[in-house]
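Good morning,

Attaching, inline, the backbone tokens for the sequence recovery test we're adding to the shared suite. The designed sequence is right after.
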């Protein structure tokens, strides 16, 4: 894979760090990589210009961010003729009881929602909870959920990071090679 596009959406920045790390790994293997954070106003690149298009998103309340979905919707025809891989960065990926549900809902469901989309690979990547980044309401909500998974009497850390960098690097290496 020579020319790779990594295109993603994020709410709190975890997915940006994941996408940057993926691009570093792919570049070390000799690939030419464009990394695009799909914010409002950023033009959609053409999938045909790449050997591989990797599309990803952080998950909140069971949902991808809006712009990568819009990209898939608008470019579906050309994406169906291009090699595509999908990833999500998700809190459920760090919870063994929720992994299967997250894989099914956030990744395996995508070809059903977007007929023609046929990913060669998908990755369910553990996300991060960083309480200081949230507004008061979100912080209280997420802390109360996290406390349910914390042994009684144990302090909740400021940050819970489920990202597995070896897994992320192995996934991208396999794709590039
Ligand atoms: C308000 C809120 C809701 C969330 N809902 C979910 C969810 O439904 N499923 C899930 O797997 N992770 C959920 N998460 C965890 C996020 O997926 C995780 O924090 C991820 O790292 C976010 O990526 P981002 O920083 O790129 O937006 C939620 C996080 C927050 C703050």
């Amino acid at each position: 894979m020579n020319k790779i596009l990594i295109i993603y959406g994020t709410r709190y920045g975890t997915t940006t760090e994941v996408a940057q790390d993926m691009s570093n790994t792919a570049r070390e293997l000799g690939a030419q990589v464009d990394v695009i954070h799909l914010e409002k106003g950023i033009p959609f690149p053409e999938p045909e210009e790449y050997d591989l298009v990797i599309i990803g998103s952080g998950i909140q309340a069971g949902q991808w961010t809006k712009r990568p979905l819009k990209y898939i919707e608008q470019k579906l025809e050309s994406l169906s003729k291009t090699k595509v891989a999908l990833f999500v960065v998700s809190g459920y990926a760090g919870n063994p009881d929720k992994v299967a549900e997250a894989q099914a809902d956030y990744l395996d469901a995508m070809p059903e929602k977007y007929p023609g989309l046929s990913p060669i690979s998908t990755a369910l990547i553990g996300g991060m909870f960083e309480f200081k980044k949230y507004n008061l309401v979100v912080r209280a909500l997420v802390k109360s959920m996290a406390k349910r998974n914390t042994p009684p009497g144990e302090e909740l850390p400021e940050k819970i990071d489920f990202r597995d960098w070896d897994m992320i690097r192995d996934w991208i290496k396999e794709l590039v090679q």
